């Protein structure tokens, strides 16, 4: 059976419906943009699922297309808890059959403890309200519910040694975080490998990456930087990311040696509290 493209997210289905309704109304993107009071490029983003319209934009879309509140009502179910650049990747996480995580400087979000996530998010927001920080921590930790099933998705976790050494949140938070990852690895929930400092440069030294595979769809790769992220589904780009991951994995310690290393460093953090 030929493999389809990656699964469509709810946002992309919304955008496709918008495109079909616009065509049925015999309107161009330019014509619709004039009615919605936005740029044609923004209409293109809506139709591709890259952006969601604001409620007032959706109301004008309904008025322009005569869809009787359809796009406003559907929009209420699509508002993401996450930043726009991550929203589609967050949806795809829930559909993946296998994930390969690489942490360059931080423990991947799916594996973070509450305290570690709070330290990361508060450091990125010097002026924040406690309720907003609480909400973001809960959103991040809730993503890990996809790991409640002990068998799916299959999870590989590759960490740069810098992740283990950087004392995010202080020694107690780090010890707790590293032990959580080690416990998951020891229980068989994830496969753990560490790329040690001694290797020097390696294939993933420039960026974090998450690789996602699906049962009946093509794989994707997601990379993220400061206030931005990029989801790749172009086969050549995804294949290149997979090759880089494999190269870095070849430089990593074995599962057992990585487990021993992460527990030893957790002890170092714990010891340094006193």
UniProtKB/TrEMBL annotation:
GO molecular function: DNA binding
Pfam families: DUF5753 (PF19054), HTH_31 (PF13560)
Signal peptide as annotated in the record: none
Listed InterPro entries: Cro/C1-type_HTH (IPR001387), DUF5753 (IPR043917), Lambda_DNA-bd_dom_sf (IPR010982)
Database matches in SMART domains: HTH_XRE (SM00530)
CDD domains tied to this protein: HTH_XRE (cd00093)
Domain HTH cro/C1-type as annotated: residue spans: 18-70
PROSITE patterns: HTH_CROC1
Superkingdom as given in the UniProt entry: Bacteria
Transmembrane segments: none
Record protein name field: Helix-turn-helix domain protein
Species annotation: Streptomyces violaceusniger (strain Tu 4113)
């Amino acid at each position: 059976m030929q493999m389809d493209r990656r699964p469509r997210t709810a946002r992309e289905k919304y955008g496709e419906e918008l495109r079909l309704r616009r065509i049925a109304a015999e309107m161009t993107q330019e014509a619709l943009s004039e009615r919605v009071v936005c740029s044609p490029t923004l209409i293109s983003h809506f139709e591709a699922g890259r952006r969601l319209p604001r409620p007032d934009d959706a109301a004008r879309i309904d008025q322009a297309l005569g869809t009787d509140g359809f796009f406003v009502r559907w929009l209420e179910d699509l508002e993401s808890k996450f930043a726009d650049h991550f929203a589609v990747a967050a949806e795809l996480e829930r559909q993946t059959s296998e994930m390969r995580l690489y942490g360059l400087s931080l423990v991947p979000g799916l594996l973070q403890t509450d305290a570690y996530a709070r330290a990361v998010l508060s450091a990125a927001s010097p002026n924040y309200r406690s309720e907003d920080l609480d909400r973001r921590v809960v959103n991040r930790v809730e993503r890990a519910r996809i790991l409640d099933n002990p068998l799916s998705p299959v999870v590989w976790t590759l960490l740069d040694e810098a992740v283990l050494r950087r004392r995010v949140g202080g020694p107690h938070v780090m010890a707790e975080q590293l032990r959580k990852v080690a416990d998951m690895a020891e229980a068989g929930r994830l496969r753990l490998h560490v790329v040690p400092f001694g290797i020097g440069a390696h294939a993933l030294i420039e960026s974090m990456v998450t690789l996602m595979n699906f049962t009946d769809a093509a794989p994707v790769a997601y990379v993220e930087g400061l206030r931005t992220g990029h989801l790749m589904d172009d086969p050549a780009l995804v294949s290149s990311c997979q090759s880089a991951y494999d190269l870095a994995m070849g430089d990593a310690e074995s599962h057992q040696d990585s487990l021993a290393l992460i527990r030893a460093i957790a002890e170092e953090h714990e010891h340094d509290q006193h």
